[in-house]
Amino acid sequence: MVILITGAKGQLGNEIKLILENKRADIGEISKEIISSKFIFMDSSRLDISNLEKVNKVLTRITPDVVINCAAFTNVDRCEENKELAFKANSFGPRNLAIVCEKIKAKLVQISTDYVFSSKGKDPLREYDETKPCNTYGKTKLMGENFVRDFCSRYFIIRTSWLYGHVGKNFVYTIMKLAKEKENLKVVNDQEGNPTNANDLAYHILKIISTENYGIYNCTGKGEVTRYDFAKEIIRLSKIDCKITPCTSDEFKTKAKRPNYSCLDNMMLSCTIGDKMRFWKEALNSFINDINK
């Protein structure tokens, strides 16, 4: 099997590389079929997914069996400042990949987000629940999902949330950095979600691509937590001397609005390949132990 990874230098692409090097993920071994597959990692300098002509040229030459699209514009606040760039990366890019994947009969994995939802409830959201994004990032990612569904028949749309990995920017690294610089941090206490270790997500992606269980999946860490309690656990495990104080979203103004509640239920995983995602505290502890080494 030939597997092409776009956006390969991001935290998810990097995590896939680590799993292949170790021949296993933190939560389990990888199949022999995946280990023996040919992986091609491409970043934006080698493949600009917003350019249909280039996507067609590259994919037609390589003819991968699977394309895993890890390329995205994920800076939520900057998406509000540059809507065109967000649309190109998060909507038009997946559209181009979907068109060419259908042409060459390749499977397409599109990584999406909990921000396609904007719930004020307290029930975890399932794959069939109504989407209603409240910011540009969520809107462009939802349009990317829709393009994939419109133009490709062999797709896996995988929604994740609060993702952190060993490279790039994420909430875990941000809190650790700020905690070392300041004695007191304010973190919002009215946004709930599911922290997700990128290694766990990568494991499930590498498992699902060997199947034909096409459709939309939620794939997040187990357990619900506020940003404030997530930050407290990061500080506790990192053993950094810093006080964390709760605040509201209204006190901590950002350019992009965030949903108050975007917790997901991994129902589709449970019904197909099985849900082995770890509880968020266990996965976070494993991650911080790794980086401390």
UniProtKB/TrEMBL annotation:
InterPro entries listed in its UniProt record: dTDP_dehydrorham_reduct, NAD(P)-bd_dom_sf, RmlD-like-bd
Keywords recorded for this protein, A-Z: NADP, Oxidoreductase
Domain (RmlD-like substrate binding): residue spans on this chain: 1-291
Associated pathway: Carbohydrate biosynthesis; dTDP-L-rhamnose biosynthesis
Enzyme Commission code(s) on record: 1.1.1.133
Origin superkingdom: Bacteria
Top EC group: oxidoreductase
PANTHER family referenced in this protein's UniProt entry, alphabetically: DTDP-4-DEHYDRORHAMNOSE REDUCTASE, METHIONINE ADENOSYLTRANSFERASE 2 SUBUNIT BETA
Family, similarity comment: Belongs to the dTDP-4-dehydrorhamnose reductase family.
Task of the protein: Catalyzes the reduction of dTDP-6-deoxy-L-lyxo-4-hexulose to yield dTDP-L-rhamnose.
Name of the protein described by the UniProt record: dTDP-4-dehydrorhamnose reductase
Organism: Clostridium oceanicum
Gene name of the record: rfbD_1
